[in-house]
Amino acid sequence: MSRYRTLSNKNKYYIPKEDYLTAIHYSRRYPLLLQELSVAADTSKAIRYDKDKVQSCNDMDATSETAIRMTEITEKINLIDNTIHQAANGMDEWLRYGVCYGLTFNQLKSKGMPCERDMYYLMRRHYYFLLSKRI
Predict the structure, then answer these.
(1) Which of 64, 101, 115, 124 could join 60 in a cystine, given CB atoms 3.0 to 4.6 angstroms apart?
(2) What's the pLDDT tens digit per position in 76-126?
(3) Is 24 a domain residue?
(4) Residue 132: Cβ within 10 Å count
């Protein structure tokens, strides 16, 4: 855990270490959420014939469970996207690569990111601060 340094209590974007790590890991799930959302949902398991009796009841079926799960995933993706948009000041793509895909500043700079180190780290701190308040 020493890889992630927390901010000083005096910084305006200070959040406790646990909240900071939660925001980091929540952001890093972004590619997995996109992948899960893009995979076509298999709802063919609504009725299982491998049991002795096939019961019907008023509980949710596989289709509604899948729809609920897809809605939850979409809400998580939108939360991350909206927070990036609010914190990035027009640099959404670069901040997304940094916080969601784990690219370092040097990797982003070599790909053509137009801002400098101080501005990027300020955007990133602001993003984690906002996300930790919204989770």
Answers:
(1) 64
(2) 999 999 999 999 988 999 999 999 999 999 999 999 999 999 999 999 999
(3) yes
(4) 20
- pLDDT per position as a tens digit, 27-55: 999 999 999 888 866 555 555 555 555 55
How many domains does the chain divide into? 1
The pair of three-digit structure tokens given for residue 70, joined into one six-digit string: 């897809």
Which residues, other chains included, contact 25 with Cβ-Cβ below 8 Å and sequence gap of 6+? none
Q: pTM above 0.70?
A: yes
